[in-house]
């Protein structure tokens, strides 16, 4: 995935010819651009979803998608994952437990995911209502998290976003411990995909979802809150704003939602008890 000039392209990016306007003149050359490829998720030989995604960490993506969509109850229900590149995209084939496969066949619907997609494939408002909920997040099990921890984790994200630094076109989702130490980061052209990749990485790495919090370099849409709640994360911190529906779902599911986590400030929209008061 290198261009003719031999420049290096990190995983998830390619070099393409481009003309740059600078100081009143046009300069020819190449630019790093984020890859965005169709990724087909196939369960037991049945194609369930086609998502546009960055082509790295796809095993994490497959696991996280399977968990956040409720296709499997836990990692033990996924027996095998195979990633195969094809001419038109990438196929990720999963072999899952028979019970999960049976439920999937009963509830499966055709859907095509796009980078900014929400409820792709939902065909009615009644179906939307069925999809909206999330299981309750476990109650706080430890002392409140210091507000500074949110900002330490968000600040640390910048140094861990290699693909974004190269292309300027991708989102990141990270997992931090209660002190704000960033333990895991995943990137993708889609903010939902980045969070799915993080959920999958945590499950595969044996992390306890209740022992830290997630930070995302995007707005907090309802889908992001839903994925965090389904992963049993107690707190989601976003660098940008939430939507009203996201706040409603966070309140109903017991998840603490923080927005505008930047420049030493943040806004708590739901369940503020998980964060210590300023100065504590």
From TrEMBL:
The keyword Zinc does not apply. The active site is at 117 (cysteine persulfide intermediate). Mo-bis(molybdopterin guanine dinucleotide) binds at residues 260-265. Keywords: Cytoplasm, Molybdenum cofactor biosynthesis. Pfam families: FdhD-NarQ. It comes from the Bacteria. InterPro entries: Cytidine_deaminase-like (IPR016193), FdhD (IPR003786). The keyword Cytoplasm applies. It is found in: Cytoplasm. Its main location: cytoplasm. NCBIfam families: fdhD_narQ (TIGR00129). PANTHER family: FORMATE DEHYDROGENASE (PTHR30592), SULFUR CARRIER PROTEIN FDHD (PTHR30592:SF1). Required for formate dehydrogenase (FDH) activity. Acts as a sulfur carrier protein that transfers sulfur from IscS to the molybdenum cofactor prior to its insertion into FDH. This is Sulfur carrier protein FdhD. It comes from Massilia hydrophila. The lineage of its organism: Bacteria, Pseudomonadati, Pseudomonadota, Betaproteobacteria, Burkholderiales. The gene is fdhD.
